[in-house]
Amino acid sequence: MTTKIERICPQSLAEAKEIIKQGGVVAMPTETVYGLGGNAFDDNAVKKIFEIKGRPSNNPLIAHVHLDYDLSKIIDYDPPYAQKLREAFLPGPLTLVYPSKNRVSPFVSCGLDTLAVRIPSHAGAQAFLKEVDIPIVAPSANISKHVSPTSAKHVFDDFNGKIPLILDGGECEGGIESTVLDITGEIPLILRPGLITREMIVKVVGACEEYIPDLEKDEKVKSPGVLYQHYTPRCQAFRFASERVKDAKNHINQELEKNKKVAVLCERELVKEFENNGVAVLDLGNTPAEMAARLYGLLREAEDICELLIAVEPKEQNGVMTGVLNRLRRACQEVEIKQN
């Protein structure tokens, strides 16, 4: 199979629609990351996405729809506060989990009676979704557990020869996946943190809780992105807490003595700490929005330039950084220093 990358235009949208109609898979941009899209009503298309990605069968998918799509076709109940959330944040990087009418393929929600729905704000995504005018399930367009893609090239690197078409919508501005919010209860519950923060949600609806998964007791995960190992680069990747810069330097020196190619990922204010030490320094940025946008691209860059990546966590821990740190901690193993 030949994999084409095409800019979004009437011709490429028509081609994408035909692929979807035939049960195929198309990569599409969103404002967060690129998605691997298929017809949510088509069992075979949904199963194909799981197969191509190597995705665990218990990891549910998100249905993407355009702004004018009639949600009553696929959701069973619309909580009173949901309209406030949609008015405040949609289209945008927020996924809402509703009770499902079970009209989409049962493979989408992996046996759950809920359906995660998202209305992306990316103009190219909206154009594609309006063209097909059906819900499109679209997990991140990367091999399962690999770093999520924020460019068409990232998608091509993972799926060249495996899918027919990548709709190129440029670099993703958001950079980390959408916040997933369970709205099946009286109080919304964050299943996966993202660019829409708990504080932002509380301002709109007055309350919001956060879900802490216990995967040993709850085998059916409620949202994508809660499995521990996730977003991992194809090189060794370790991380240190923000207050352990000295430990990070010592560890780097030990690895350099073994003649390893080492790179450091850190926020901008720490870049000078690691420059001129025989390592490549990947500048994560100095604002939460910048760090979110740059994280996945830098994790993929590390694959090309080093054998070992050392990440130092940013000092900021709240708001958008909750989502950034969530991804970083799943991508990089924490280094434990033995005390003498």
Gyration radius (Cα, Å) is: 20 Å
Q: Approximately how much beta-strand content do the residues carry?
A: 15-25%
Annotation field: number of helices: 10
The main sheet comes to: 11 strands, mixed
Which structural class matches the secondary elements? alpha/beta
Order of strands, main sheet, comes to: 1-8-2-3-7-4-6-5-9-10-11
Question: Can you give the mean pLDDT?
Answer: 93
Shape: globular
Our measurement of the CA-to-CA distance between the termini, rounded to an integer number of angstroms, reads 57 Å
Let me know the number of strands.
Answer: 16
- Unreliable parts: none
SSE order, one letter for each helix or strand: EHEEHEHEEHEHEEEHEEHEHEHEHE
Overall helicity: 25-40%
Summarize the structure.
By secondary structure, this protein is of the alpha/beta class. It is built from ten helices and 16 strands. An eleven-stranded mixed sheet has the order 1-8-2-3-7-4-6-5-9-10-11, with helices on both faces. Strands 14-13-15-12-16 form a five-stranded parallel sheet, with helices on both faces.
Task: Summarize the SSE layout with pairings.
Elements: E1 4-7, H1 10-21, E2 26-28, E3 35-39, H2 43-53, E4 62-64, H3 82-89, E5 94-99, E6 114-118, H4 123-132, E7 136-137, H5 152-159, E8 165-168, E9 179-182, E10 189-192, H6 198-205, E11 209-210, E12 236-240, H7 245-256, E13 262-266, H8 271-274, E14 280-283, H9 288-305, E15 308-312, H10 320-331, E16 333-334
